[in-house]
Amino acid sequence: MLLTGTPVQNDMVELWSLCNFIMPGVFSSKEEFSKIYTFMGLGTSAGAEYLRTQERKNSIVSKLHTLLERYMLRRTKTEVDLLLPPKVEVLVYAPLAREQARILRAICEGGVGDTLGAMGWVGKAGDPGTRGGEGGSAVAVSVNNRTMNLRKVCNHPFLFAEPGDCPPGVTDHRIVHTCGKMIILDKMLRGLRAKGHKVLIFSQFVTVLKIIADYYTWAGEAAVGQYRFLSGETCSEDRDAAVREFENDEDNAIGAFLLSTRAGGLGINLTAADTVIFFDSDWNPKSDDQAQDRAHRIGQTRPVVVYRLVTGW
Questions:
Q1: Interior angle at CA 304, CA 284 and CA 151, nearest 5
Q2: Of 80, 105, 236, 300, most Cβ neighbours within 10 A?
Q3: When comparing pLDDT for 136 and 236, which is higher?
Q4: With b meaning 16 or more CB within 10 Å and e meaning fewer, what string describes 206-223?
Q5: Is the separation of the CB atoms in 130 and 123 below 8 Å?
Q6: Which DSSP helix (H) or strand (E) runs through 229?
């Protein structure tokens, strides 16, 4: 018997590999399997040709289902009585802070680097798209991708630059007050910590998670507890150790686990948490679904609340 907890990712070669592993006598030829059951050679033509192509694709899928139903039993979480506690998702709207609104207007109108310089903010040396500078001078910001810049300013203006009067490595109240999402997150984390909840915080950007980690240092362990950190840069030994510490935290000293959505969305069990916060959402909703299921899975005994932070203007 072969068990897989991750859905087959629409890759026929991967599917053949699984079937060949368990039944090599039936699924012996990868080439023959791929020739019969792939969409290779089927284009994306328009009009009548498009309809014929879709019919051929549907026919291939139907044949594949007929073949596999003799060997494969597929069950989704909703079809199995796991006695899981309920899960609810809440959208939390965060207004733009004054600094964010000013930078956003500059992104739309041009001259964001000059605006940051006029604010007395300096770029962070070594970060993509920014350069270290002096207060009052322009900060170099890439303008090639306006959509990405808009995403960055909604997440945190520190992704562009930081106040020039703040010494390197030192964080003050502006890590919260210059960002609408951080103002909301600060209030949420203090309240959740006071009530004994453990939180998973997801972001697509490692730089955002590092800003949140700086926030934890500034806010202090007494107010928001400790945190653990996991991204694609985390080695397997540190990853396993962080998960164990979070799950076996009998004193509830660790208040949150900061995870990048893609790296932390698969293969780990974090049922010690009963709250999930998406600081920013993935373009693919399935990635967020897999991420929040780190908490809402077998072993969870409490209702799970998922908060999704959204900034609009």
A1: 35
A2: 300
A3: 236
A4: bebbebbbebbebbeeee
A5: yes
A6: strand 226-230
Q: What is the DSSP letter of 5?
A: S
Q: Are 264 and 294 in contact (CB under 8 A)?
A: yes
Cβ(131)–Cβ(123) below 8 Å? yes
pLDDT in tens, 48-92: 777 787 788 888 888 888 888 888 777 776 677 678 899 999 999
Domain ranges (residues) in the chain: 12-74, 87-93+179-311, 98-172
Assigned token pair, 181: 């999402």
Give the model confidence (pLDDT) of 138-185 as tens digits: 677 776 788 899 999 999 999 998 898 877 667 899 999 999 999 999
Show the tokens assigned to 35: 């020739």
Position with higher pLDDT, 124 vs 281: 281
* Cα distance between residue 119 and residue 98, in whole Å: 12
- Residue pair 68/76 in contact (Cβ under 8 Å)? The answer is no
The amino acid occupying position 292 is Q
Distance CA 129, CA 113 (A): 10
Q: What is the pTM of this model?
A: 0.77
